[in-house]
Amino acid sequence: MVLRLLLVLSMCARPGTGLPPRRMDSVVELVEALDSNHPNLTLPELARALGACSTPGCRVVLGEPPPVPPALSHDQWVPLTQLLHRDAVALAPDGSTVALGPLLTGIEVGQKTVSGWPFPTFEPPIDPLYAVTITEALGTSFLLARGGDGATLGPGGCWDDVDDPQNYTLLGPPSPIPDAVANGAMDGVLLGARVAQAPIPLADLLRGYYGMDNSTEQGRPRSSYRRRDFGVLMGPEKLEQEVEAMLRVLRVLPPTRELLQDVGPEEVAAIAGRAARDFTQLYVECPPIVLRCMWGARPYRGTPRALTLPLESVFIHHTFIPSAPCHSFRSCSRAMRSMQRFHQDTRGWDDIGYSFVVGSDGYLYQGRGWHWVGAHTKGYNSKGYGVGYVGDFTSTLPDPDTIALVRDQLLPCAVRTGRLHHNYTLRGHRQMGRTDCPGNSLFQEIETWSGFKLHPPPSKQHPFTLKPNDGLKATRTELVPTVPRPHWGGLVGPNLLEEAQA
Description:
By secondary structure, this protein is of the alpha/beta class. Helices cover about 40% and strands about 10% of the residues. It contains 17 helices and twelve strands. The strands form four sheets. The protein has a six-stranded mixed beta sheet with strand order 5-8-7-9-6-10, sandwiched between helices. Strand 1 and strand 2 (about 95-100) form a beta hairpin. The longest helix has 21 residues, at about 265-285. The radius of gyration is 25 Å and the shape is globular. It starts with a helix and ends in a 21-residue tail after the last strand.
């Protein structure tokens, strides 16, 4: 076992560090090494021995952590502590970062459930799977912040190198549940529930869920559906009930008794309600967004201009080039970098023009984002968000899940979070200028969406009214036959101030 473990750790380590890249495939390799050399020691138990289950609630559910395996010397143990330490995170193939603690403890609960292991009983009863993954962390986070101080959820973070990830840095003040812990908790719930139904080798479970067994980029991994699947399994009402029950259990545990001694039953219920509501809104109802540092964005050139929120409009685009939809984190990141280079180097813009870009991998990609004026819709960049679908959707549509990512998640999320007026207006780019964007098929699709307005605002009316793609271009004095103008990554319009671009 020792030699095999050390071989796994050294084979893929960065030269000079002795550490493997902190990717999920490194975790799977470690699982296989344990299975073949030490079948009585599982990776979840190894992680618990390293502190992955150190909170009072988790320890009372799963018991005290096992001792350090005697077969490992101190020098052999140190590399494992680097990969599986208490706050360990791993980069998944879909580009999401996953905390290993809640992931592995959730899987261990599933394994113990299927084996008939007797979990301790509590009053009120709690679900062990939710307790070790999300409800203790969620209840504690909002309990500590009930005075209004401190973050309760988030933030996200970025890796130093997505090809050889070693260091993960949060992008703001940390809460007890940063994005990586939320991802790990949801995955721990989903995979723990899967294991509880029937035994499955851990390596196969992780490979199948995170898409490491996909032979092509066309198949989305199950992990990209974590928000949807978690929401189906655990709605906000059930989450609230479990958080409240967990807080009542924590009231009687010695390490947490003092935190709750002055908190009455009504306040406990209020804390649980807020925790469930805020978590559901941020991590279930709102879509996942890949941050700029994750897709490899260049810095913004110059000084960005702030938007005045909430905005009144949304403008839908397609990129045209790249013409093919992107189906993976790697291909979508390449598309983002390509568009940004073209926008900055060829058009001379400060940054990629879109507010957000939609991949067919289940993720949105941050362009200018929620708060900064983009360069997507000439004359209206400061009045609305520009959302571009990667691909040419002249004659085909994005797949239904990719359509729903904007229609059913991004737009309602923007309204609920105060970034978009509840009576917002949605239009296709072609309604605001002389372009075929967002393609005939996608334009016909968005005509059915809530908020769509057929006509452009009065300030955009032209002397001649043209049907989309009629092959004509209007001028002040005449109609000139021309070929319909393509939409090269949102790039039509003069190279002037960004408010006048696109």
